[in-house]
Amino acid sequence: MANNYPVIVVGAGPVGLLTALKLARQQIKVAVLDQSPSTNDSPRAILYGLPAVKVLHQAGVADELRAAGYTPTRVSWRKLGGEIMARLDITYPEKVQDRTLVLPVGELTSILYQSVLKEPTATVLFNHKITSIKQSNDKAVLNVTVGEAGNTVDNDRQAIFEADYVVACDGASSIIRKSLFQNEFPGMTWEKPLIATNLRFHFDLNSLDYDDANFIHHPEHGHLLARIDKTDLWRVAYVDEPNLSPEEYRARLPEKMKIMLPGNPDPDQYTVVAMNPYRVHQRLAPSFRVGRFLLAGDAAHLNSPFGGLGLTTGIVDAGAVSDCVGAVLSGKADETILDKYNEIRRDLFINESDKWSRINYLRVTDPDPETLLERDRFLQTMNAVKGDPAMIEKLKEIEMAIYHDFTAYYKQASE
Question: Which of 10, 80, 129, 277 is a plausible cystine mate for 153, CB 3.0–4.6 Å?
Fold first, then answer.
């Protein structure tokens, strides 16, 4: 017997949970299926830009998230050793609740998960692994292997789930995307991997004139140094040599930190809380819609996290796809809005998220940091802002470019 839902979301990461939450708050019955035994708290994204904050406000969780995280005030771009090339005050917009947010993605996921559990029309099912998919004119079908609670998915039980629509938020290795397009995921992979580490410093970094977020530019040691929370926990995300094992990256860490970090600290001056090496990609699925299946987040696209355009773009996807699918199910729009979702979100990824994240990666790893400022108009612009209201408004407009309001395609909007 099939399990029937108007919407099934595949993937209980932040994009999937946010999609489910926004649908549930439209009184739409939704199930989230995830093959893991629980949510994932590995060190990944920490920063959410203005477009993401807007969507989180729409979902009703922004205030709780901000209380758990913090609002950064300054960002700087530096040479190795700390010399500042450019610095920007980011205390805009005027209202603190509308500004950039910093919060570890594990905490974001936890808060979203608890919010979804409170919704009477939402269900989250772990240990549910999609094995195959199919669709007809009126439904999407998922064949699912169900594992015992608390264990990884095994061949314990087979189940069938049916839905009017399935939203794939199951990440870079998405089984839904692979089922729809096989191995077709056009794009490229950067040669050097990114090593995301969380470090707790045993010295006062603030006394060394470092900001909440610091981009350090160097061809071999380019990295982001960013405060994670209100304590002395910091993210150091850096490029390293390719094709090494996790153990080899861990062994190289003390030397890398001594070269990269302020004051050239020894290992006893910090604690490694977490470490996660991963490949960095720029990829885009052929389509975000195939019939009753839709893609969002990393299942749909991948890009460099430098500049905070990774999960921010995924969160904006979640807001868009939930608005579009919800509108179809409630009669506010016909199915053509799903084609609009595919067309517009793909276009914005190509022309905004992918474009700028590539530029950000290349800027951080620039081969000649000594001449970078004189060559880079972006850095020159950051120095020119100096609180100018017109320039600040222009920066906000540029940052919000990845957002699109799909309610403009609702029936009442055109009547």
Answer: 129
